[in-house]
Design goal:
- The complex is a heterodimer of chains A (793) and B (281).
- Chain A has 793 residues and is of the alpha/beta class.
- Helix content of chain A is 51%, strand content 8%.
- In chain A, helix 2 packs across helix 3, helix 16 packs across helix 29 and helix 19 crosses helix 20.
- By secondary structure, chain B is of the alpha/beta class.
- Chain B has a single domain, classed as Aldolase class I (TIM Barrel, Alpha-Beta Barrel), CATH 3.20.20.
- In chain B, the strands form two sheets. Chain B has a nine-stranded mixed β-sheet.
- In chain B, helix 7 links the parallel strand 9 and strand 10.
- The radius of gyration of chain B is 19 Å and the shape is globular.
- The mean pLDDT of chain B is 92.
- The chains are: A alpha/beta (793), B alpha/beta (281).
Chain lengths: 793, 281
């Protein structure tokens, strides 16, 4: 295995890997105290910004003895903050988090007591989550509790964006000037929103100060530590710390001048956004290699940077991201996203704003860093356009071969089209990329909020029961008819689509309401500084400030629903092998005593993923109809909803609430993941799978996700790597948005289940991110194992 | 015109260069004792029984209707296809061929035992710019071979046993015809690779290896020998015998995988003479 570039990195890496995530209550305490003293005195945006400033002033800062890039969200690595203003954990929640086996966050009894005494009583009745759930209608609550969809924003703030290159050109002082300019232009006579804008802009200004203060504190600490080192005779470390102090005085107040400053600049900004709120997908530098390349080249030419040092700093950055564990989730949200991973997904390669190839020396440094670090975070992806050199793709494939689950592979030629279809300009589209799992966005200029997953397979289940959830017996949706009375497949499909439209509308009406809750009660005043055009418009990131404002609904289970419809169409309406009545009876029994029928279905139904016209036609039709039910529906920011096709871990959760399905899937088992074929459904190899996926018009989506599992034996030689690269290019030429590979054989995975201690570092691909196999619950582990394995003979 | 084919394999990466589509013809004039696709030997369609898929539902009183088996434990092996039916499948793979330098590999069984349809398929592929490879034992009519050669971009030639008596014992025929055809292929200048099933107890001894080396040198002087593949014996084929005849009682396996030293020795011997030699594929 490739070794970390320096011994320092080996130490930092090991520390990061070994540290158990813990819950830290400091943020909650500072915030609670601040709110006690100041709530009601200021407008909400200003209050939030001042709260942010207070946190940056008061929270314990940390500089490790070995570090070069500095700053943590908490007082030390993997100390995770809570955000009681959004979701206040109960004492029971804290105990669960401390003791649960998976995604555990340790917390002392003493801290739990403080939480009980100081934090919980203050926030009771005041949290965003309570506000949200107090007013949701039953027509939403019933399907939500039944598992027909999830709601991302009920526990965490929306984030869902990535940065463009502006922080490498402008520092906080420059942003303050822009804010001042915007303030000076406010027209209190003619603009009815001038006052709101003033509050928001004032808040943004305070937020800039907050991160400057935070950095200056690090500079002071670094100086202190330097003096201490000098006193102990450690001149080398003293000099490093003085450098660090200088960097922290320079950024983020000013634009960076060097590669080191550029990385630290991004890092302070990242910490700022995850301190202000706990937004999904943390923060993301986007096309980091493209942004760092000019600094790298200049520093190398000036002789102040070596390639080794550049990799060392990059490694430090990777470790920093790994130290920021995702904030804990409870309940349904914990199940839809059961991981420590906070989804920072670095885009490597790709195209430049002028459309030319973006691969540069830093791209290769990043590939090497991925191999050497082999940590849970950050996520990484290579972006392969027609203009991307083959050599870069091959080198990326060699990293994929290692089986870390990173990097995944994206297709700029399709996602630039996706963005332009949505109305982005060519320039903005090319500067965009994919963040989180696989969702596409105009980096630095778009709020592309994922609102939650849609359980398409269960919507069909409810259709088969005329609006009732057979698991609970409750009426969770509208009546669309008793399927036993449908004379044709078309009637059934029609009823299904009526259900889809109804459920989508239920989801949207509450997501829209929650959108407004965030705009009103929890504006992201620091994030707004970084996103065009919030400063110019004087509006918050959640309130239509960005140039583009998108909401997404993620559709889950395409494989399962396609296979289920295929089964019914063929066996009931075409061949008459069994009746609808019989099918419903058998599904209700979970196929008990009906293994023959189940096997017949599994072995005699055209399934999605085999380049089979019968099944693929159904997949295309469902996809297009899902698109029609979501696309273009208005959001609260003057723009609209789009669809994308991913599942994270939600296909496992959705599977647990969905009964047996007509494709032969047993009750409780995971649905198909992402946009991939159902587990075991694809039997014709990866070229057939990509041809099936290629029939979907993916440009209409905001992202799709295709998971494929390969055994190491299929990727051993140079020829094998060349073939993998060719498979990727072929899929992309067929219109594919994304593909990712798990390269691990079943034997290893089964072994890891039996002897987890020997496989602590076994990282596998889940959805748009990787996770430790040991951290996954048994159901998700089975899911990863089941994903069809491609093996040559 | 139809051909009896028992398998198609997509994303085939060990049957020639690039990503390939492999077509497996049913029927072989030889009956090598170690054959790992014994279901390919008969020219007739057969029904196989795959025991570990069987769920014991009892709906298979007659094995004449394998398509009715719910669990697909009964599998029809071998169906008749027209040229167009095969070409339709091949054409779906073109995007992958183009980007990987791949193409179609005709294998089996013995593809040249159905020469008419093989030739038609090769011509169609050639007309569509698709790279063609033929994987053959060369126990074929020389006239057929000379028809096939102009439309073949790559030959994958089995090299089994050099000693004629041993060849007769294990394979059922003498090897004169095969050797003659090998020279014909070499002289044609069409690139060819040698694929040696390396069978413990049969051809893993020094005389055989030396004789193979001599032949390889001869052939490479005549023509364009690209690679030598050494394919150590494995016993996956034996379980397939049970699929063909579930009542069969197999004698103990008289073959074995040669030792790692033997394999390494053979490989370095070939390499020392300047050949590109790979294990497997």
């Amino acid at each position: 295995m490739p070794q970390p570039v320096t011994p320092r990195i080996a130490r930092l890496r090991q520390e990061s890997f070994d540290t158990q995530p813990s819950l830290n209550i400091e943020r909650a305490r500072i915030e609670t105290q601040f709110y006690k003293e100041n709530e009601g005195k200021y407008s909400i945006p200003v209050l939030r910004a001042m709260n942010f400033l207070e946190l940056c002033k008061k929270k314990t800062i940390y500089i490790g003895p070995d570090e070069l890039i500095v700053g943590e969200r908490g007082p030390r690595p993997k100390a995770v903050s809570t955000f009681p203003e959004l979701t206040c954990h109960s004492v029971e929640d804290l105990h669960v988090l401390n003791t649960r086996e998976l995604q555990r966050y340790t917390i002392s009894q003493q801290d739990i007591d403080i939480y009980e005494r100081e934090i919980i009583p203050f926030w009771k009745g005041k949290t965003q989550r309570e506000r949200i759930f107090a007013q949701v209608p039953d027509s939403w609550r019933l399907p939500y509790e039944a598992g027909l969809f999830t709601e991302f924003m009920e526990q965490r703030a929306p984030g869902h964006t990535a940065l463009d290159g502006k922080i490498y050109k402008y520092g906080m002082k420059d942003f303050k000037k822009m804010i001042a300019q915007s303030l000076s232009k406010l027209d209190f006579l003619n603009d009815p929103y001038a006052t709101d804008k003033r509050e928001e802009l004032t808040a943004m200004d305070i937020s800039c100060d907050a991160v400057i203060v935070f950095a200056e504190r690090h500079a002071a600490l670094a100086e202190e530590m330097a003096s201490a080192c000098e006193a102990q005779g450690n001149a080398v470390r003293a000099a490093e710390l003085r450098d660090i102090a200088e960097v922290c005085r320079r950024v983020p107040a000013n634009a960076p001048r060097t590669y080191h400053e550029a990385i630290q600049m991004y890092w302070f900004v990242h910490l700022g956004t995850i301190t202000e709120l706990n937004g999904w997908d943390a923060m993301n530098p986007g096309h980091f290699d493209q942004h760092l390349a000019p600094f790298y080249e200049e520093d190398m030419a000036a002789g102040i940077l070596t390639r080794e040092r550049a990799k060392e700093l990059m490694s430090c950055f990777f470790i920093k991201v790994n130290n920021q564990t995702a904030p804990p989730k409870v309940g349904i949200t914990a199940k839809e996203s059961g991981t420590y991973n906070d989804f920072t997904n670095l885009n490597i390669g790709g195209v430049k704003p002028d459309g030319s190839d973006g691969v540069n020396p830093v791209s290769y440094i990043m590939l090497e860093t991925i191999e050497e670090m082999h940590l849970l975070q950050p996520g990484t992806s290579i972006h392969i356009s027609a203009v991307t050199p083959e050599h870069f793709l091959r080198e990326g494939c060699k990293v994929i071969r290692r089986g870390y689950g990173y990097p995944s592979v994206f297709n700029p030629d399709v996602y630039v089209q996706e963005l332009m279809r949505q109305g982005k300009s060519l320039q903005d589209a090319r500067e965009g990329g994919c963040s989180g799992c696989i969702e596409v966005g105009a980096f630095g200029k778009e709020a592309y909020l994922l609102t939650g997953y849609l359980n398409v397979a269960k919507i069909f289940e409810v259709t088969l029961h005329n609006g009732t959830d057979p698991v609970s017996g409750k009426q969770v949706s509208i009546s669309t008819g008793d399927p036993r009375e449908f004379a044709s497949f078309e009637e059934l499909y029609d009823a299904f689509m009526k259900q889809v439209r109804y459920i989508v509308n239920q989801k949207m009406l509450v997501s829209n309401y929650i959108d407004r809750m965030f705009a009103k009660y929890a504006p992201a005043t620091f994030l707004s500084v970084l996103m065009d055009d919030c400063i110019v418009r004087g509006r918050d990131y959640y309130d239509g400030g960005p140039r583009y404002n998108t909401n997404y609904i993620q559709c889950t289970g395409l494989g399962t629903i396609t296979d289920s419809l295929s089964s019914i169409k063929k066996h009931i309406y075409e061949d008459g092998t069994f009746s609808m009545d019989k099918l419903l009876e058998v599904l209700a029994k979970n196929f008990a005593g009906e293994e023959k029928m189940r096997q017949y279905i599994i072995n005699h139904t055209p399934f999605f993923g085999n380049d089979d016209e019968y099944a693929d036609y159904i997949a295309v039709r469902v996809y297009n109809d899902l698109y029609d039910s979501i696309e273009g529906k208005p959001n609260t920011k003057g723009e609209c909803y789009h669809l994308n096709m991913l599942s994270t871990t939600c296909h496992v959760y959705f599977g647990t609430v969905t009964g047996a399905t007509p494709d032969g899937r047993l009750a409780g088992k995971a649905l198909s993941d992402g946009t991939s074929p159902s587990h075991g459904a694809d039997t014709q190899g990866p070229s057939a799978v990509v041809r099936s996926l290629g029939k979907l018009d993916q440009v209409k989506s905001g992202g799709t996700l295709l998971n494929q599992r390969f055994t190491p034996s299929l990727l051993k030689s140079e020829d094998d790597i060349a073939n993998l690269a060719a498979l990727i290019r072929s899929y992309f030429a067929l219109g594919g948005h994304h593909i990712q590979f798990n390269v691990v054989d079943t034997k290893t995975l089964r072994d890891a289940q039996k002897y987890p201690d020997q496989y602590r570092d076994l990282l596998v691909r889940v959805a748009g991110y990787s996770d430790y196999f040991n951290h996954m619950d048994a159901a998700l582990q089975e899911d990863v194992i089941c994903r069809t394995e491609n093996q040559s003979f | 015109m139809k051909g009896c084919i028992f398998d198609f394999k997509r994303y085939s990466v060990h049957d020639g260069p690039g990503i390939r589509f492999s077509v497996f013809f049913k029927g072989c004039p030889l009956h090598c004792a170690w054959c790992h696709n014994p279901e390919s030997q008969s020219f007739e369609p057969q029904v196989l029984f795959i025991a570990n898929k069987c769920i014991g539902c009892g709906s298979c009183e007659s094995r004449q209707f394998p398509e009715k088996c719910p669990a697909k434990a009964l599998e029809k092996c071998g169906s008749w296809y027209t040229v167009e039916q095969v070409m339709k499948r091949i054409r779906r793979e073109i995007p992958f061929f183009e980007r990987s330098g791949g193409g179609v590999t005709f294998s089996g069984g013995e593809p040249m035992a159905q020469p008419q349809i093989l030739l038609e398929l090769l011509k169609e592929c050639r007309a569509s710019g698709i790279h063609t490879a033929v994987d053959t034992s060369l126990f074929v009519n020389p006239g057929v071979l000379s028809d096939i050669i102009p439309f073949t971009d790559l030959f994958l030639l089995d090299l089994k046993v050099m000693n004629n008596e041993r060849h007769l014992k294990y394979i059922g025929v003498e090897n004169g015809l095969i050797l003659e055809n090998m020279h014909t292929v070499a002289r044609s200048q069409v690139p060819f690779a040698l694929r040696i099933p390396f069978i413990g107890g049969v051809n893993d001894n020094q005389q055989e290896i030396n004789a193979m080396l001599q032949l390889a040198l001869e052939l490479s002087n005549l023509g364009n020998l690209t690679r030598i593949h050494l394919l150590p014996y494995h016993d996956y084929g034996r379980s397939k015998l049970i699929r063909i005849n579930p009542e069969a009682v197999l004698p103990p396996d008289s073959f074995y995988k040669p030792s790692d030293e033997t394999i390494a020795g053979a490989m370095s011997l070939f390499a020392s003479q300047g050949f590109t030699v790979v294990q497997g594929g």
